[in-house]
UniProtKB/TrEMBL annotation:
Organism: Aurantiacibacter sediminis
EC number: 1.1.1.22
SMART domains linked to this entry: UDPG_MGDP_dh_C (SM00984)
Family named by the database record: Belongs to the UDP-glucose/GDP-mannose dehydrogenase family.
InterPro entries the UniProt entry points to: 6-PGluconate_DH-like_C_sf, NAD(P)-bd_dom_sf, UDP-Glc/GDP-Man, UDP-Glc/GDP-Man_DH_C, UDP-Glc/GDP-Man_DH_C_sf, UDP-Glc/GDP-Man_DH_dimer, UDP-Glc/GDP-Man_DH_N, UDPglc_DH_bac
Key words of the record: NAD, Oxidoreductase
Listed name of the protein: UDP-glucose 6-dehydrogenase
Length: 437
């Protein structure tokens, strides 16, 4: 199969490299000259474990290439994936589809008969219909199909998720598109992967429903964690107790500082907008969005409480800034609210993150003028009156607690990811605050 991937962002680049690795011929297209130049030089603009090697191997094998010139590659393509950004539109919370529609318009005169245009970007229900209309208007005689193929990759585990998916969801409204999509995924389905074919609107909604459901699970356990703290239970026991019921499932029941990232916050909001548009109620998702916003806003207070209720003039070591481990992504990270709350309360913040410090500095209130960025976890702790772990990076899981205590002015640890055993930390003379226990 000849595949063109439009957009070399996170989804486009990972999917393009993985499709090439299956043996397809893939060209990734982007309008951003500097991105394409970097990729042609073997530089990968995002941090994703294993991606640089996967790209390099497939470029060397001649299956993966990069170009600015859409006209050069589209006429040959069997399938054209749209993997451009769909950020939250300023002002109204709708997904901004202008990049998707611009891509459709641009490709229309260049497609060959039989081409399948596949939406991989996360798009609201009905976007496939709109893409179809745009192409048909520009190229009225063209025989083409539009499919939806949402991605469920997790940052930091994207390559593995792509190669071993729980399922692949494909939305098609005609047999030709179904056959092409089945051929594209045959290297995976012949290895046992489950491909679920449905109509286009159902596939579009499945993506939002999956993310909203996972966000609900997290918010549910976060609220249970708050209740556990009040009633004297350990949320890990409760999570284990409910998660072993196969109807519930044990994953995504880890309490923490609230979910962030490029998907859950954006997609839950976009789902609410879709519901509004179609006059349907989504009371649960609405509550989840509020619960998570409240939680992120409350976490700074939890740290300040651990500092005896007053952060003024105190120094706080912040370990981890990204919304989760193994990414450099700062989008909607709970650390943003926490750091802002600490500095607003008069604390000096010393922060360290293995990958996220460059992105973090671009965020309002997290600039290098507002907080001190340190070169490792231990230097962040020097002279600190409290330590807060926000992200579950591996190096933070096995800190030398005796050394930490020596470095800090006061041994207070707030562990927002439940990385430590209370017994161990307290045995080293710390005041220990965790989540839901
Ligand atoms: C998510 C979906 O998992 C993925 O299927 C979709 O394609 C994109 O959105 P991602 O945003 O990369 O992926 O991260 P994920 O690992 O799902 O975590 C999202 C957020 O939830 C993070 O802030 C994480 O810390 C938080 N989380 C996750 C919890 O607080 N507890 C959990 O048990 C799981």
């Amino acid at each position: 199969m000849r595949i063109v991937m439009i957009g070399t962002g996170y989804v486009g680049l990972v999917s393009g490299a993985c499709f090439a690795d299956f043996g397809h011929t893939v060209t990734c297209v982007d309008k951003d000259q500097s991105k394409i130049d970097a990729l042609l030089n073997g530089e990968i603009p995002i941090f994703e474990p294993g991606l640089d090697e996967l790209v390099a191997n497939n470029v060397a094998a001649g299956r993966l290439s990069f170009t600015l010139d859409i006209a050069e590659v589209l006429p040959e393509a069997d399938a054209v994936f749209i993997a451009v950004g769909t950020p939250t539109r300023r002002g109204d919370g709708h997904a901004d589809l202008s990049y998707v529609y611009a891509a459709a318009e641009e490709m229309a005169p260049l497609l060959r008969d039989g081409a399948v245009v596949v939406d991989k970007s996360t798009v609201p229900v009905g976007t496939g219909d709109e893409v179809e209309k745009i192409i048909a208007k520009t190229a009225p005689d063209l025989k083409f199909s539009v499919a939806s193929n949402p991605e469920f990759l997790r940052e930091g585990a994207a390559i593995d998720d792509f190669a071993k998916p729980d399922r692949i969801v494909v939305g098609v409204n005609d047999d030709h598109a179904k056959e092409v999509m089945e051929a594209i995924y045959r290297p995976l389905t012949s290895n046992g992967a489950l491909l679920i074919v449905m109509n286009r609107r159902a596939a579009e909604l499945t993506k939002y429903a999956a993310n909203a459901f996972l966000a609900t699970k997290i918010s549910f356990i976060n609220e249970m964690a708050d209740l556990c703290e009040k009633v004297g239970a350990d949320v890990r026991d409760v999570a284990h107790g409910i998660g072993t019921d196969s109807r519930i499932g044990s994953r995504f029941l880890m309490p923490g500082p609230g979910y962030g990232g490029s998907c859950f916050p954006k997609d839950t909001l976009a789902l609410l907008k879709t519901a509004e548009q179609f006059d349907a109620q989504q009371a649960i998702v609405e509550a989840v969005v509020k619960s998570n916003d409240d939680r992120k806003a409350a976490m700074g207070g939890k740290v300040i409480d651990a500092l005896s209720g007053d952060a003024a003039g105190k120094t706080v070591a912040v370990l981890g800034l990204t919304f989760k481990a193994d990414t450099d992504d700062m989008r909607d990270s709970p650390s943003i609210d926490i750091v802002r709350a600490l500095t607003a309360a008069g604390a000096t913040v010393r922060a360290y993150d293995p990958e996220g410090m460059e992105q973090a500095q671009k965020i309002d209130g997290l600039g290098a003028d507002a907080i001190t960025y340190c070169e490792d976890a231990y230097s962040a702790m020097e002279g600190a009156d409290g330590l807060v772990i926000i992200t579950e990076w591996k190096p933070f899981r096995a800190l030398d607690l005796a050394k930490v205590k020596d470095l800090m002015a006061a041994p207070v640890m707030v562990d927002l990811r439940n990385l430590y055993s209370r017994k161990d930390v307290e045995a080293n003379g710390f005041t220990y605050v965790a989540v839901g226990r």
